[in-house]
């Protein structure tokens, strides 16, 4: 019997295989009870292009932990950082999390800020 984390990672595995075949940068999301993190990884998966999280000092004052508002702010921030690093198009890797709530808010905010996926 798989535990909750193993089930999530099993769901994520197939998505990551498909993303690797596309040959585009990957926007990954990690969500905990208290915080949310977003990372843009290069096409070949060898380096991190941009990161944003609800732990950043500039954002901590304006947002509360891992709420939907925080996810929206992180989505905008990761899009700005990715565009500054020269990445316009990404594949969205939700890491096995349901496309709902905070994950959905982050994705929609990143799209509105100009990231294409």
From TrEMBL:
Ribosomal protein keyword on record: yes
An example Gene Ontology CC term for this record: cytosolic large ribosomal subunit
GO biological process, alphabetically ordered: translation
GO molecular function: 5S rRNA binding; structural constituent of ribosome
Pfam families recorded: Ribosomal_L18p
Chain segments annotated as transmembrane: none
UniProt keyword terms in alphabetical order: Ribonucleoprotein, Ribosomal protein, RNA-binding, rRNA-binding
Family matches, as InterPro entries: Ribosomal_L18 (IPR057268), Ribosomal_uL18_bac-type (IPR004389), Ribosomal_uL18_bac/plant/anim (IPR005484)
Keyword Ribosomal protein recorded: yes
Function: This is one of the proteins that bind and probably mediate the attachment of the 5S RNA into the large ribosomal subunit, where it forms part of the central protuberance.
Protein family according to the UniProt entry: Belongs to the universal ribosomal protein uL18 family.
Assembly and binders: Part of the 50S ribosomal subunit; part of the 5S rRNA/L5/L18/L25 subcomplex. Contacts the 5S and 23S rRNAs.
Protein name: Large ribosomal subunit protein uL18
This protein's encoding gene: rplR
């Amino acid at each position: 019997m798989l535990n909750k984390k193993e089930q999530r990672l099993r769901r994520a595995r197939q998505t990551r295989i498909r993303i690797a075949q596309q040959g585009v940068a990957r926007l990954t999301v990690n969500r905990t009870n208290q915080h949310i993190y977003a990372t843009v990884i290069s096409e070949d998966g060898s380096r991190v292009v941009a990161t944003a999280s609800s732990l950043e000092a500039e954002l901590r004052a304006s947002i509360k932990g891992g709420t939907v508002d925080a996810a929206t702010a992180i989505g905008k921030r990761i899009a700005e950082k990715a565009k500054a690093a020269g990445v316009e198009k990404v594949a969205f890797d939700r890491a096995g999390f349901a496309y709902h709530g905070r994950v959905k808010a982050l994705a929609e905010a990143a799209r509105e800020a100009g990231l294409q996926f």
